[in-house]
Amino acid sequence: MGKVFTSDEVEKYGTEGWLSPLDVLTQEEVTDCRKRLENWESDRGGALPAHERSSGHILFPWIDSLMRNDKILDAVEDLIGPDILCWNSVFWIKEASSPSYVGWHQDLEYWGLSSSEVVSIWIALSDASEDAGCMSVIPGSHRDIIPHSETYAENNLLSRGQELQIDLARQTTVSMPLKAGQVSFHNVRTAHGSGPNTTSDRRIGLSFHYMPTNTEQTLSDWDTAALVRGEDVHHNFEHCPQPTADLEPDAVEFHQRAANAMREIIYMGAHSDQRTL
Q1: What is the bridge-based pairing of β-strands 224-229 and 238-239?
Q2: What ranges do the domains of the chain cover?
Q3: CATH architecture of 7-266
Q4: Residue-wise pLDDT tens digits, 62-78
Q5: Start-to-end Cα distance in the chain
Q6: How far is CA 202 from the centre of its chain?
Q7: How, if at all, do strands 102-105 and 192-194 pair?
Q8: How confident is residue 270, by pLDDT bands cut at 50, 70 and 90?
């Protein structure tokens, strides 16, 4: 029995590569987070620029606090152990009645991280129903590496429009709808994607990507991560500063350096030694 998940749930995660949902935030906490995000968007003219959708935990204490939420970290510890780094945070926003979607992909194929134990969590800051374009996964897909194509499709929210080169009709897919305040968990190699938002409200999600401290960055000489629990005796990533106020000058400067490094990593060439399911 773990701190959050049962032994059966941890076994399911190992076998299928996902767990969902977990109740984490109260309605009051969700409302506060959404208000803070939308105030930030308003300050930026209505939408966040691309580089600010990522690594917001470096810029804002409220995002840093979500990243360090005890219940989330207890759950992550059940899955990967007590020494935990958070590599990144990303806002995933689909406007109401939006054609935007996320192509089917495996994160590990373009993040450059050496560990297949990385856990991606997705916090719903608004309801993420199937109609709103919730995330879906292919259970067990984390056991294989699947070829990807780079489509650069207009409405694909991924940086290079990544899409798996498989026949989805022959795969078993599972939807992971979330109520606002709930969280899903999936392995960094679990194939996942999401459809468009056909509802009258925005679909707002925030992902964090947690990894064991022995993880290395294979595509760059420099990368950053936040130590969120335990000890880091490996020092493979520079620890990012923990903000005490919004948009502190030193934090903004560090965030820009992190954004530049992330851009270089994400736009590296795709792997060539991939195997199909």
Answers
A1: parallel
A2: 7-266
A3: Sandwich (2.60)
A4: 999 999 999 999 999 99
A5: 32
A6: 18
A7: antiparallel
A8: very low
